[in-house]
Hints:
mainly alpha; 2 helices; 75% helix
Amino acid sequence: xxxxxxxxxxxxxxxxxxxxxxxxxxxxxxxYQAFDNMMLNIEQRGIRSGFGFxxx
Length: 56
């Protein structure tokens, strides 16, 4: 059991895939946090967003 896991950890292809997946998750998390923070601040300040100004 542990030898198979250990061999996966030392496999360059598996390690590269794991690091890339981790990087994607971290970037997606920070993007979500930035978007959530932006929407919260826009709502608190009462700023309207959207394309409604095109109909005025």
